[in-house]
Automatic annotation (TrEMBL):
Residues of the Pyridoxamine 5'-phosphate oxidase N-terminal domain: 2-88
Protein name: Pyridoxamine 5'-phosphate oxidase
Superkingdom assignment: Bacteria
Pfam families recorded: PNPOx_N (PF01243)
């Protein structure tokens, strides 16, 4: 999992895909954090992405850096504990300008049944299940 987070942080931006009805939705994200051995992301409850994940938790993200790309697929499960939100905000202090752990808006999700695939045109894909 550390390899996955390292890749995402070095890429700086990844794109998270969700589904709204029968329409895919993709948007840039930047949070990737390990808390209690799980890969977490963060958003706001007021955003469409939150509503989409609650309706259908299946999601995939993709990032590219240095000639390689990573895809991470799985189900995103909300962790409503304040400790999880605080851990994310401590890892990304710049988010504290917009979010607080107890603001009723900050939301963190972790990947369940996650599969990451690191690919390149020059090597075989590396698959990491977590």
């Amino acid at each position: 999992m550390e390899e996955i987070v390292k890749f995402l942080k070095e890429a700086e931006t990844y794109y998270l895909a969700t589904v709204e009805g029968d329409q895919p939705r993709v948007r840039p994200f930047g949070t990737a954090h390990i808390f209690e051995g799980k890969l977490y992301i963060q958003t706001g409850k007021k955003k469409d992405v939150s509503k989409q994940l609650h309706a259908n938790p299946k999601a995939e993200l993709c990032a590219f850096k240095g000639g390689e790309w990573i895809r991470v697929a799985g189900e995103l499960v909300e962790d409503d504990r304040i400790e999880a939100r605080e851990s994310m905000l401590d890892a990304y202090p710049s988010l504290k300008k917009m979010y607080a752990a107890d603001d009723g808006n900050t939301e963190v999700f972790y990947f369940k049944n996650g599969v990451a695939t690191i690919s390149s045109f020059t090597h075989e894909p590396k698959v990491i299940k977590f």
